[in-house]
Design brief:
alpha+beta, Rossmann fold, 8 helices, 19 strands, 24% helix, binds adenosine-5'-diphosphate, binds magnesium ion, translocase, cell membrane, cell inner membrane, membrane, Spermidine/putrescine import ATP-binding protein PotA
Length: 353
Amino acid sequence: DAIISIRALTKLFPGVTAVDEVSFDIRPNEFFALLGPSGCGKTTLLRMIAGLEMPTSGEITIDGQDMALTPANRRPVNMVFQSYAVFPHMTVEENVAYGLKVVGTPKAEIGPRVEEALRMVQLEQLARRKPDQLSGGQRQRVALARALVKRPKVLLLDEPLSALDAKLRDQMRLELTRLQHAVGITFIIVTHDQDEALSMADRIAVMEAGCVRQIATPTELYEQPASRFVADFIGRVNLLDGEVTGTRDGIVEVETRGLGRIAVAHEGPVSGKVCVAVRPEKLTVSSAEPTDAPIRAQGKVRDVAYYGNASHVFVEIAEGFELTANVQNRSRRIEGDFRPGDTVWISWASEDT
Ligand code: ADP
Ligand code: MG
């Protein structure tokens, strides 16, 4: 049950493997994100799905059909580009109608379909305006309507929010997820922004150097990253190198360099050298020694970074070994509880690693 199947897909450019034997499926009506650092091959992968780039090897199947011989304009997909290009001399409705005209859609059909597309992105009221009479967010919705009017089975979006300022970006994130639910088609979004992927996608493929490192839901990726790279790329994390010294039902004992021997929750077999990951918000910072926390250590506050809703407290446990704790600022405080130089306790529960 896949709308898109990708098998051993590879793209070589002179001197670089942009996409390296990638295989995965995308389900119908899924909001799917390709996430990874700049240059990892996201755009190239998306362009191959769109038919704008020919694979060096491998297969792409869309809606049950092999795409090897299908040109871009005959694929049931549509791409919204990073720049959100719209024609400045055309009105909103002319912009949206353009793509239908060039493929010879009957005139009688164009009007209703443009209207439908404008309604989807809530631009019906602005149909007669020119792009320079629109806000940045509205121009983006014109570009979306231009793609939706063709009724693709899959909409491809390459960094659609990267050109917007922070506030508008937050708003468009929500609009895009709502739009996807409303139109009920598959969205594939490319982004290097983990917050964007986590907040919008049903599933995320994390890419590095042309390879897909993990595909999972946002919570799985965040709570159970499969590798050090994924843990580090998705959100902030404390990484502790160590070596397994024993296991018993669901608990692994690890001798760590920074914290000595600790017990961490882990399903499945594990041995040898490992990396323990703890999210900053799972750590508790206290002035008094916690009596019941299984994992704890004393240290000295090095820095406090205030973010309004939360603060990051950087605590040096030993020479050259620091843990970051995220402390929620729930109650209204004028002065932070912790200051550089304070001696504090850091603790967490085994199941939170
Ligand atoms: P991303 O979108 O993740 O930033 P890209 O898919 O754009 O990454 O690029 C992946 C790699 O392929 C990069 O090393 C990039 O320089 C290279 N690349 C992309 N397009 C071309 C091209 N047309 N010719 C040569 N190299 C390219
Ligand atoms: Mg790109």
